[in-house]
Automatic annotation (TrEMBL), chain A:
<keyword id="KW-1003">Cell membrane</keyword>
<comment type="similarity">
    <text>Belongs to the ABC-4 integral membrane protein family.</text>
</comment>
<keyword id="KW-1133">Transmembrane helix</keyword>
<feature type="domain" description="ABC3 transporter permease C-terminal">
    <location>
        <begin position="742"/>
        <end position="859"/>
    </location>
</feature>
<feature type="transmembrane region" description="Helical">
    <location>
        <begin position="320"/>
        <end position="353"/>
    </location>
</feature>
<feature type="transmembrane region" description="Helical">
    <location>
        <begin position="784"/>
        <end position="812"/>
    </location>
</feature>
<feature type="transmembrane region" description="Helical">
    <location>
        <begin position="365"/>
        <end position="387"/>
    </location>
</feature>
<dbReference type="InterPro" id="IPR003838">
    <property type="entry name" value="ABC3_permease_C"/>
</dbReference>
<feature type="transmembrane region" description="Helical">
    <location>
        <begin position="735"/>
        <end position="763"/>
    </location>
</feature>
TrEMBL record, chain B:
<protein>
    <submittedName>
        <fullName>ABC transporter ATP-binding protein</fullName>
    </submittedName>
</protein>
<dbReference type="InterPro" id="IPR027417">
    <property type="entry name" value="P-loop_NTPase"/>
</dbReference>
<dbReference type="InterPro" id="IPR015854">
    <property type="entry name" value="ABC_transpr_LolD-like"/>
</dbReference>
<feature type="domain" description="ABC transporter">
    <location>
        <begin position="14"/>
        <end position="251"/>
    </location>
</feature>
<dbReference type="Pfam" id="PF00005">
    <property type="entry name" value="ABC_tran"/>
</dbReference>
<keyword id="KW-0813">Transport</keyword>
<dbReference type="InterPro" id="IPR017871">
    <property type="entry name" value="ABC_transporter-like_CS"/>
</dbReference>
<keyword id="KW-0067">ATP-binding</keyword>
<keyword id="KW-0547">Nucleotide-binding</keyword>
Amino acid sequence: MLRLTLAQMRTSAGRLAAAGIAIVLGTAFVAVTLLASATLEQTTHNAVTAQLADADLVVNDSTWSLDADELDRIRRADGVAAADPTSSFSVEVDAGGRTEWLNVGAVAGDPRLSPAVYTQGSAPAAPGEMSLGVGIAERLAVQPGDAVEVTWESWVPDAEDPEDGVWAPHAQTVRITGLIEENSGLAYGSPNAYVPADEFARWEGTTYPDDAAATWSSILIALEDGADVEATRAVIAAELAPDSSAEVLTVAEQAERKTAEITGNEVTFVVLPLGFAAVALAVAALVIANTFQVLVAQRTRSLALLRCVGATKEQVRSTVLIEAIVVGLASSIAGLVLGTVLMAVGLAVLAGLNLDVPLDRTLHLNALSVLAPIAVGTVVTVLAALVPARMATRVAPLAALRPVEGEHTRGAGRIRMAFALVLVAGGVGLLVLAVAIAGGLGGLATDGALLLALGVGVLGGLSAVLGLLIGTVFVVPALIRLAGRVLSRWVPGRIATANAVRNPRRTGATASALFIGVALVTMMSTGAAAAKDSLGDALATQYPVDVSISVGGPEVALDAAQVNVVTETDGVSASILGSVAPVTLGIDGSQEWVQAQAVDPDDLTAVLRDPGVAAGLADDTIVMPRLYAEWYDLADGDRVSVTAENGSEVELTARVTELGGVDPMVTPAAFAALGLPFVENTMAVRLADDVDAVEVIGEIQSALTDLSATTDAPTASVAGAAVERAAYTSVVDTLLAVVLGMLAVSVVIALVGVANTLSLSVLERRRESALLRAMGLTRGQLRGMLAVEGVLIAGAGAALGIVAGLGFGWAGTAVILSTVGEVTLAVPWRDIAMVALVAVLAGLGASVLPARTAVRTPPVAALAMD
Amino acid sequence: MTSPVPASESTSAVRAVDLTKIYGEGEVAVTALDHVDVTFDRGVFTAIMGPSGSGKSTLMHLLAGLDSATSGQVILGDVDITTLTDKQLTILRRERVGFVFQSFNLLPMFTAEQNIALPSELANSAADPAWLDLLVDTFGLRDRLTHKPHQLSGGQQQRVAIARALSTRPHVIFADEPTGNLDSRSGAEVLSFLRRSVRELGQTIVMVTHDPTAAAYADRVVMLADGRIAGTIEDPTPESVLAGLDALRGLETQVAR
């Protein structure tokens, strides 16, 4: 049977290879994920062990209660050569105006306990000496031999009121003796500067109030040569305080534990991609199942002949399953190789970048990362082939004697239709229910209700997807017929439509693979678009002004040249001038000093991102930020008395808005009433929407600096909220790009499926194509016909996916963002257009190879075939 | 309604001039047609006969422009089709040639009516409804128009195929063993329909067959052996055709010695 199967496979090697691509991509995804997680773990492990230097044992106490007595006892214990606590605290270093925060630690008493690796100079030995990271030295522009000023603060509680106290400053000048390698970015909180142990104890001592002595969470221990690790470990454990919660660990144990701690938090980096890999594999399974079904259908005659000459059903089934195993194994191995190569290339590229984490560059090919992708790929392939295998067993021996003509595919049954309808309707109902539950919260989210809404929503989504998958057999041909109507005047188009729907199961299955990918991509885009819109609204309120420019002091005005320079900078779309002056607000008897800003309400709208923040600004009102109003229990409409420094006073009506900060806003008329001159000492600028905020603000800044340096214009400071807004937006964009990239794999796999199904159909229809050619279908028309068929199938899958994805995306956003407030249902037109375009192009592309074969076959050759 | 035979043209519907077809190259080269000169007249039902491997199917494929000649010419009407590009050939086929094959004549996803109308639609020209009506009635397909091929019997399928071949009123119809897959009763029916097409509708038909009974329905039989014309029989009867075939076998036997 095996020989027969292999012979059969050889004849359809091309088809199987194409189907195999789906599995190759899926397993490569899994392989990369596993390899990447191993690299992440090893990189972390390296960072952790680097901090443990060459120590032999570690005493760990999560309660930070290891004290000096215990340290002494450990140091005196048999077999212990040296023991040092690990401790560090933050100081600020100033080198001629450049400052940097450092984490300073003590030089180890034994070189085996020192994680510091010197690249230049030597370790500090005397008080007043220090070594620090090579990167820090570069940023501070210092070298060994240079002196820097170190400052730190310690909290000194008030003797009478322990709740109160002051930060006492400490400062010392130190000379740099050496530079050390920078820590891995993963060794968070490890020292990147060292001072001698005595000096460290003295500095550290200043940070403890009164006589509280230092305690530590861990002590590194180096053993004497020849000392037994386990014996010494027991000795040390005995030396610890009887009620101590500390543990003695070997370095290997400690490294393992620490690594697990750090990577445990990063489980999302493994679980999330594996989730997407699962989606990719599910799509691949659909493609495989479809390919095998088509292959079995095409082999009906030879399978029947096998049955005629005495093959049992089991034998026929096993030919299909053996085929699946071979294809699955071969493609999974290819996928593993592809994934490994991709990972190696990725590592090489990343190593070229200057990351602050020293990447572990070896490929971690272990049993798990090799066997798991192969096993998963093979199992998925075989599972996908189960249904086609059963189909093969149903071929009756008599089929060998029947002519293949007059094919009539069994339509899908009513039960299936009913099942699909119930699932979709139920799913949509659940989604609506989820939105209703979330909406009922009215912004007052209780976690329980939100979770309920989410659970109901996810259930609804799954049910709807399942229903649609079952129902593609009805929906996709219907969609294709609908689209086909447009083409009914063009004969090749009409034939293409008829061809696309003649085997509803096959077309449905092909389209459903694409449907899944497209639905997920659309859902993510829709969710991200809504999140971005909501975030955008929130940011517009938080940072209503893109850039504000001000000069110090209420009397100094911005120079006309400065105003000109700003308004003429490329990327500035609008600007207004305002005046800021200190005033005192009288609220409920208390007097509060604030900086009031006077601006013309009409001009203001042009520069505000969210005009709502200045709502109600008029000559007799004062706009109060919500935050400030809450502090003083100020309600909208309350009367506020405003007093200028010259003593004049007016009463204004408070208008509380979402304005950020604490400073109120009035009109120039209010300033006039207070006798305050309108000194143009502040400027609000709005940037055009399509410019790089960082760049434009940089240009404004340097133009103003140049002016101040060359003329007697006052020094102006520039604050750019636009930069922060851009940063927030780019985080969402980046996340979305990563997610879409991972989903794209599924879409690519689905497209492989479309191409494969199409070429199988073309093979099946060689004689039809030949007949059409004989009857006068030109080569161009034949190509066009196949292109239309490809586009119709891909388009139907994509259209269904887009609609479903939009629905899920909206429902998801409505539920998740319900707590944030108003949800805008955005349609990511650009992304949808791209998905649709990709589907159409892919449909066209999928038809290219099959069309070449079809066009090249001379009609005579195809007609001669039996 | 224009006449299918313009008076200005010659009486030949399709003509082979010194036509040669060699398959393969070098030692494996097989000469399927060896300098064949033959003329098929308009309004005549001609049968091409010969034993297996005599080159009769090859001759038909070349005459119909389905395959390219190694040398020589095929003149269809007044066009030398051996000089045409694939596209020109395709257009010539759909406008001036009709086909009836042994099997698989119909597109399974279209109804009988759609199959009949297909060639005109491919040519983007509306089929003459009166002509189609006439065809449908002549071939007794009125009740079968909405049926798909798998709902039709073999004989009915071939009748649809003939109606389709006639639908564009082509210059010539080529029929390749049109009764090969049919029982004798259906076969006789199909052959009489072919003859009616010639007699009543003025069509030209060239039919390849190896069945002397089928050949007897033709006006003229062209005998082919070893890629050469081995003779013709006018107004054949099954007996005369059989005698002709026997003569051919005798010839072959002699050649073999």
